[in-house]
């Protein structure tokens, strides 16, 4: 799928799971882009082109960086380096959703180093399904954000009311 969908889908999932925590949501979006480090023309590959060209030349596209082994390894490293559990979950959602989304657009070597590809569908990148997923993810993310804002405003007004009550009682 396209980079924007790879970022937006995990962002929406993480926003829904963790009450739109901004750091976790952005972490999931960034993790959603990370596996395409094996493609020099991807969002991340254009920024880290030296690494991307090397990865593509050595491993090929949609291989080790799109595998279950990579997702599990990163998760274990996160736990071993005492990353907060929520952060590990956000990163795993980003990486895992990337693998599934690419399995829907032609397939990935999910069982790398085995070469066989896991193909769920062959929706083209930037095609209708890509756009649909992007729009749905945006709606979910905006919905979660509005719920969070509503909650914050309510809490702030409750606190304001409580301090007004205290001032009233103390007089
Ligand atoms: Zn990819």
Pick out its properties.
171 residues, single chain, 68% helix
3D structure, described in words:
With 171 residues, the protein is mainly α. The chain is built from seven helices and no strands. The chain has helices at 3-17, 22-33, 43-47, 49-58, 68-80, 85-103, 128-170. α1 runs antiparallel to α2 (22-33), α2 (22-33) runs parallel beside α6 and α5 runs antiparallel to α6 (85-103). It is elongated, with a radius of gyration of 20 Å. The mean pLDDT is 94. Residues 35-36, 62, 66, 98, 102 line the site of zinc ion.
Q: SSE layout and pairings?
A:
Layout: H1 3-17, H2 22-33, H3 43-47, H4 49-58, H5 68-80, H6 85-103, H7 128-170
The structure holds zinc ion.
Residues 35-36, 62, 66, 98, 102 line the site of zinc ion (ZN).
Shape: elongated
Assembly type: single chain
Number of helices: 7
Order of helices and strands: HHHHHHH
What is the C-alpha radius of gyration, as a whole number of Å?
A: 20 Å
Ions, cofactors, ligands: which are bound?
zinc ion
Main beta-sheet annotation: none
Structural class: mainly alpha
For the termini, the CA-CA separation is 63 Å
Number of domains: 1
Proportion in helices: 55-70%
**What fraction of the residues are assigned to beta strands by DSSP?**
under 5%
Q: What's the rounded overall pLDDT mean?
A: 94
State the total count of DSSP E strands. Answer: 0
